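Reviewer 2 asked us to include a model.

Predict the structure of this chain.
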Amino acid sequence: MNIYAKGRILFPGGGEVLEEGFYEIRFESIGGLGAHLAGQMLAEAGVLGAGLNGAHFSSYGSEKKGTPVRSYVRFCSREQEVRTTSPVTRPHLVAVFHSRLFRTENVLSGLRPGGMVLINSPDSPSAWKERLGIKGAGVGTVDALGIAVEEKTRVNTALLGAVTRALEFLPPAAVKEAISRTFRRKYPHLVEANLRTFERGYEEVKLLPPAPGEEVVLPPPAEVEPLLGYLTAPPGGALLCPGNTVLNDLSASRQGFLPAFDRERCVDCGLCDAVCPDMCFVWETVQGARGKVQRLRGVDYQYCKGCLKCVEVCPTGALESVREVEGYAEAHRVPRFELAVPVALASGAEEGA
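Predicted model (structure tokens):
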């Protein structure tokens, strides 16, 4: 396909010329899944392998597992310069590296009509389209996590294969060369496994384009202005980071496995609670033969990032590593806190209204 029209890139499939000559991509992820590296390799493939001009950069907080990460890629024709480094707020394609990000982040904000969202999920695109309630955009799904577990790699190269399939204007060979070049530098023993992961992501992705004439129902771009400023912040300041509240949700950090709890095997030794970095274990006080004792009720999977340290130290096998399937965490979760919203925050919002 000819990707140039008046010096600009066409939408995958041909047709409409993009605004300002850019094709813009946003990767929505969390630290540890390799979104930054995936964006870097995709941009490198477009510039060195497809003759485009392009730019890539990411935004993230502290470099640790579980923190939100956004990686941005812009492409344009070789005749045009990329003279902006602003975040991509109106993407043509969004790749979601973990489906649980829909619970904590506005990952689809600003998706353009006719664009595409790719989701790391074994479910069908039609199921996700109905679940998200979006219209006027395509949906694609690929079981990137399943592929990564089988190939002993990460989800990023599987999603990179799915993205390449959706874009159409990037030659797969160019992206594979970028992957090989990247991994040969530090991890040459992982080159072949990541190439297989890419190929499986490319072949196994399921794409559902938007229906012709479908009405557009998509979320608007996210507000860039801060919610609180020096005139509107409450006395004493405000700490809104979810990582410091009961609303913190680490479920998107899990990379395919979580600890399953068997109450019958548990002897309440507490070793799991001693090594857990995120206070996931919930205890209760019960009447024992010698008085009141502490008894382990279960795991609050909202705070579990799947490090499996508890499985390593459990002496009885009451905790074992299992492959996470959709709905397991919700069905077996034992909530640690009863409040869904902090009372102080809720009352403060009402007073300020």
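The radius of gyration is 23 Å. Confidence is low (pLDDT under 50) at residues 1-8, 13-17, 340-353. We have added this to the supplementary material.
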